Amino acid sequence: MTRLQPLRLHGYAVSNYFNIAHAALIETATPFELVTTRASQQAEFLAISPMGKIPLLHTPAGWIGETVAILGYIEDCLPIPTLHAADPFQRARERQVINVVQLYVEAPVRSLFPGVFMGANNSPVSVAAARITLDRAVVALRHLVAPGPFLMGPALSYADLFAFYCLDIAERVCGFVYRRSILAELGLQGWFAQMAQRDSTQTVLALFEDAFGQYLKEKNATYRFRPVGYRTRTPAIEQRPA
Ligand SMILES: N[C@@H](CCC(=O)N[C@@H](CS)C(=O)NCC(=O)O)C(=O)O
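Above are the sequence and the glutathione SMILES. Below is the predicted complex in structure-token form.
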């Protein structure tokens, strides 16, 4: 498909979902612009993002929300399969991993954001409930992924991008709440360290570190953040204000 104007990715770099979509655009060499946009429940925003969430992709045909749908669109616009395997079975397995990470790692961890990143408290009930789902997800992911060197084999896939940004946030939350390392339990520290070296990751996480430090201050968060010092390595991208 030919596009006359670049795609515009709306959101901001505190969001792990925005960061997945940003990394996918870089990794697929898709031309794009970033537009800083905060999630909102205002009617005007709900008209383009019905759940009031970020990220959002503005395409010549209209708006797309939900990261999985955004990744699907990016991939479908490419001339050849790039970050999904060509083989239908392998592709389905990649999507299986993405779903497991989204529903059974990211969602329970997100339920704990208030007490970690937002200056509030998590009830013992929510801490215990999240742990049950996380424990099951760890067992599931041990069955599903084996770095070789990427999660699904020799090639980078959307499963790697999705898992990287969700496990990054999960590692922070699980360390803080449970004093446990989900990466260690999954045996994924080596994979994670390799992923962190990619140019796309460095670029995305450089923006994350700036935005996240500011966000935690705004929220008076209990979580203490030590920036790693990621540096933008890919060519400058136009960033428009909201
Ligand atoms: N399922 C959505 C989740 C997106 C999401 O939760 N985004 C967060 C930021 S990381 C958000 O917009 N939160 C605001 C809200 O939930 O009101 C996706 O895949 O894009």
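The chain has two domains: 1-83+199-242, 88-196.
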